[in-house]
Write a structure and sequence with these properties.
Length: 196
């Protein structure tokens, strides 16, 4: 049985805010700006900011070291901040993320980044099922327009659908929430919230 992580610290998890991933993303500049504001708050409060960086070996735009692989310079990691390399949509799959979080005594993940319908979705569902408390920052994730079986899926609609879906989720003994960047709390007392 998966344990529930209750007492510990928060961390801001910045997923795949990389040049190639964000090139055609909806509200790209607004999302990056809001992530920057949130990262500044996290640092000021002593909350770890952990970056996840996707790599696609054999695909030049996303190969390690390529310009498209680089994290957006406007919110680039500061010296000493953790960058977790990944090759799958789930940021926990075959990476050091879980060990990094456990080593920092992190129990609450504040998730931002891209892409809403891929790496954000896969990572937050994994985090919830593995016992972390999860906050999805509803105005700090994005994706690009998509087509499925001939039907257009506008990026804004994908973002809003994920926010709505996660907003209705309940997991036993866990806080799962969607809030704006202005309403993020890095010092949540989960026992009180779960009791209400």
């Amino acid at each position: 049985m998966v344990g529930i992580r209750m007492i510990g610290k928060s961390a801001l998890i910045v997923i795949d805010v990389q040049n190639a991933v964000m090139a055609d993303a909806w509200d790209r500049d607004g999302v990056v700006e809001r992530i920057g504001v949130l990262a500044g708050r996290a640092r000021a409060e002593g909350v770890p900011v952990i970056y996840v960086q996707h790599e696609v070996p054999g695909y030049p735009p996303m190969a390690a070291g390529a310009d498209g692989w680089r994290i957006d310079a406007r919110i680039a990691p500061r010296k000493g901040e953790t960058v977790v390399a990944k090759q799958f949509q789930d940021s926990f799959a075959n990476t050091t993320l879980a060990d990094t979080l456990d080593g920092m005594d992190v129990t609450h993940l504040v998730i931002v980044g891209a892409q809403s319908d891929a790496c954000i979705r896969a990572t937050l569902f994994r985090a919830m099922s593995e016992g972390w408390q999860v906050t999805l920052v509803g105005d700090c994730h994005t994706t690009e327009d998509a087509v499925w079986e001939g039907g257009a899926l506008p990026a804004e609609q994908i973002v809003q659908h994920l926010n709505a879906s996660v907003g209705f989720l309940e997991y036993p003994g866990r806080v799962v929430e969607v809030v704006s960047h202005e309403d993020v709390s890095f010092s949540v007392v989960f026992e009180e919230r779960l009791a209400s």
